[in-house]
Design a protein that fits this description.
Radius of gyration of chain A: 18 Å
Number of helices of chain A: 6
Largest interface: A-B, 34 and 34 residues
Low-confidence stretches of chain A: none
Order of helices and strands of chain A: EEEEHHHEHEEHEEH
Oligomer: homohexamer
Structural class of chain A: alpha+beta
Largest sheet of chain A: 5 strands, mixed
Shape of chain A: globular
Strand order of the largest sheet of chain A: 1-2-3-5-4
Helix content of chain A: 25-40%
Number of strands of chain A: 9
Distance between the termini of chain A: 39 Å
């Protein structure tokens, strides 16, 4: 089974960032990984949640959602169902943790940044695209804070990005599209900093369990992908 | 108080429709009224809700929502709050009724079309933009059904569009942006068919009650705006 | 199709107000429009919601609901379902806006009045009966505040009432009962002040869209009905 | 402390039943125990809940609620809060059990009767008034079924009524009003059949625990009250 | 029908208390009535709910729940269903009231004790076992408070315990197991203090209504059971 | 920082399984990892969820929850809050996926097994203890099915267990207790089959991101722990 879009096994889909797509937000980016399209906005508010007040530390959190028809078949809205599903919860928490890994909460001071990642169109890898795009929105929100001298020092410790990898028909592949994601025996999401260290590693055997050699191959592939994404993020930010 | 963007009192904002923006949907349009930006998708499914089964009639319904940071200040997600607010309910119902006004439910047969209108960016007039854009998405979904011979005859009876009007500092104005909407003494949303008849008229005195002459002036202005929107819809659909 | 109760097209049903029906409330009225029966209570509390504190302005809001067996077929309770439906939300908001139109929030001072309108028996026009009856309850609650010198000046700017109108078999009719409401091609609810100005106009094409002449005829009919209702309200209040 | 309304310790408040108050229901009664006022409606539907289908047995259930301003201080609506409180649940279940005690479910056949008991005005004893009034509504609904020959035989086995008793300042009293209810050291609700047997006994020490002699005195008083209520019910039903 | 476990009609099942079963809690007891097994924990926090602040009085409350597979057939979790059922509400309230009957709220001072009673295995009488076990957990929590000198005087006024009784095949029996509970014509839960007074009496006719003689027999039986339970509680507490 | 309980870095806490602890369930085990105590029950029902009907395949799912006072500070019940938190959702999904990895759904046939994992006492590693204990309950439920000839062939493909590992003060450690979990810079949960392959790998940088060497050390440690757990599981099952 060759890749549906003719990529090599270690090749990313075309990745683009459109900064400032949401004009009201302090930072925003429309991120595209091939046909996967996520709008990420960063909303800054003064102050922190009650449990953190007086600590001098800032707070970064995230919420992920999919538009009902971002997928091939329409899904019911979670607002209409009256509750958030497990998958949504899980991904929102992952995005929040990933971004906090590159935030110096002391330098951020008692400010809160909420990252909203809304999937407009889904073709696999929406959570990793969301993390990668949310970083760009966050970087712009931090610049916004710095321009207004609302923070001292540098709240951003570096870049963070994420990519999915998986084994399809025995072959480890980078950045799976939906068709590959469904066919994968093993599926892994890896979040890494720009200097090549791991923030999150989440590997799941969808079919048969995987052995250590397969795990190593996937980690290798992911590390290469995240390095490229880090470069693209910095380019998009004009650095 | 002149108009913030220099328009004349009876001038629409630049209106554009980007068809096919959501590739998975049977019909879709990204509609823009100035800075207001709404993605409208039409999802077709075979069959109708239980209460309509066996009637031979189709069903068209709509759901409206705003992204948390589509507005100047971030709003909490209704999915997180666990319930849909009154305003969201009200607008979803209005969009559904408006589109059903141009649907021949018999010709549609036992098929359902759900229109999802998600506001990506808000600058006033989101409900009227949603109706106007949803019509384009619906028209494409109906074409999709006709191409596949899933309907007999013509389910669409004509076009439908909507516009807001209001009185600001005593002057009746067409297609209010957010700044004007907030300042309006009277605010009216009008939904009309392409042949100049009314589907919905919803006028509200925000400040002092309005008299019959003011009501007449607003209806006149709205009729002009809807006529222009109907032409733009047909152009966008290539007719 | 003649009117089911033999009325002329521009005739109201018998309208009665029983003041003080709910002995615990600061103001209350059982309002009847024919067989439609709504208990309206006005509850006064010192203080205003958080977002209005310190403004010096009062607040008036409303909640509408129907008893499960107020209708021909029993409906499930919204408390049991765990959420409020769109129609309930919409009507509650309409009643609140309508009454605020005749309230001088400055004169009311930082007091809150909640109007509860519970439909005991429904035969069409429940929302318009609710507005009309809630005004009477509100007027009594304002008197209660004035007697206790809890407000300065006059918080009430005048009367407000509402009526439904519609076109049945081509004929514009005033104050529709349920049977007519179901049969109406066009249905309009109009809220007006005692001096003949409009607070809300909500017209909906249930069948074919309506033209300007039909709209004008309905507005005319509604204006006549509201004038009569204003007189009846003042009589009930002994003024 | 004498009784606020001058009654003797074993005297009921004036009790009235207004049958047919809710015109849409198959049976209904507005019941008043002094200032406590509850509208009870009985709604008949063919068929039974899923878990009882095919059993040949009928089903009777009840829902209790209070209007927001039935009490001295306004309560938030349970529909707005999005959930039903423990007290409401408890009372609804009590009413349902009480009425099922006099129903022959076999004779009722696969029909369902839902009793809705909505407290319009509360002055103590709302749950016991609800049971007593619901019986009258139920009896009329059963007559409705019998007239239409929808049941065979007699689904009603006899009457059922309820009353509250309590100890105030050491004195056992019948049918407590709100002021007494609040002051009671011990509070008991007793549900009895017309032939003097017990369906429910619910006694609670609000202050100090009570001894067996006190319990016996309360049971005696309740038995007397229920006997009187049974007579009043039959009178109201014209038997 | 003899008793399934060969007991005499007035005999309790083997009752055991394992104190300190939950090591994190200020007081805890695993209580067993035969195969019925409930873990009761007492959680102490400084302060009281908002509505009680500044009163100088403490607060004791309880929550009851069943593990999904504590019963013969698995039940859905109330957390998954999103709401608490009427039975759970009712029992939680009963446990709270029962324990408050032996608490001197003044001596407790502004401290709160929450009793959590989670049924690990159910074989009838879970609510009465919960009350009986919660008393032991509460007594340990009160000792914990006294050791830390967080209360003055003695917050505990005495013991409280509960037992179920019922009439099976005409015979009054003590402490029903599940099989008997299901077969009972009349079912009663009685909560009593160690000195033989009543806190709660809740009797329900499951089949035919019961007469005064049956009620007296059940009260007698329950009084005997509670006396024994009070002794066992004190033994468990080493007093 | 030495280990609080004096273990070596690669040593498990004492692990015990008490089979049959919940007598009603088809399979059950009380699993203890030191002071962490989880009751795991397996409930078998004939049939599968609607979306799987007719496939011939079985279904295994899991629900995880914590008793309110299983932790050092009492948590509010999710049933009372009316919704399940993100962490609960995430862990329930993880347990379900882990157990499905060793189930042959074809051999299971159209039967459903629900694993309920309720944490009675928490001292770190509750999710890994839950997976490890749930396997034992599942194995007993499968035996129950086989004894009754309700399945053909062998639905269990092998054992599965899980353990937490983490880096504390630079040292990789196996099976963290709560005190260590809080102090860990990196935290990883690893789920493995008895033959040493991976089902899930979830590593999270709590403090600084981790490098590849640290990741390798943790994977090594986890593999050793899971091997031991697999042996203990088989011993407990008497194989």
């Amino acid at each position: 089974m060759p890749r549906p879009d003719g990529r090599t096994a270690d090749q990313l889909r075309p990745v683009t960032f459109t900064r400032g797509w949401a004009e009201h937000a302090e930072g925003s980016a429309l991120v595209e990984f091939g046909r996967t399209r996520v709008i990420c906005t960063a909303s800054v508010t003064e102050g922190v949640p009650r449990w953190r007040k007086g600590s001098g530390l800032g707070w970064v959190t995230a919420e992920y959602a999919m538009l009902p028809r971002s997928t091939n078949t329409r899904s019911d809205r979670e607002s209409v169902k009256g509750k958030i599903g497990g998958r949504t919860h899980e991904i929102s928490r992952l995005i929040g943790r990933s971004l906090r890994a590159v935030i110096d909460e002391k330098a951020l001071g008692e400010n809160t940044v909420v990252l909203d990642c809304d999937v407009l169109q889904a073709d696999g890898g929406t959570r990793t695209a969301a993390i990668t795009g949310a970083y760009v929105a966050l970087a712009d929100a931090v610049s916004w804070l710095k321009e207004r001298k609302l923070v001292k020092g540098e709240p951003l410790r570096g870049t963070v990005s994420a990519v999915s990898v998986g084994i399809i028909a025995g072959e480890p592949r980078l950045d799976l599209c939906y068709e590959e994601d469904v066919a994968a025996e093993t599926d892994m999401n890896v979040v890494m900093t720009g200097d090549g260290r791991f923030v999150e590693v989440q590997g799941t055997a969808e079919g048969a369990p995987f052995d250590r050699a397969e795990l190593d191959a996937l980690l290798e592939l992911a590390a290469g992908g995240c390095t490229q994404l880090g470069v693209l993020q910095l380019e998009a930010l004009g650095r």
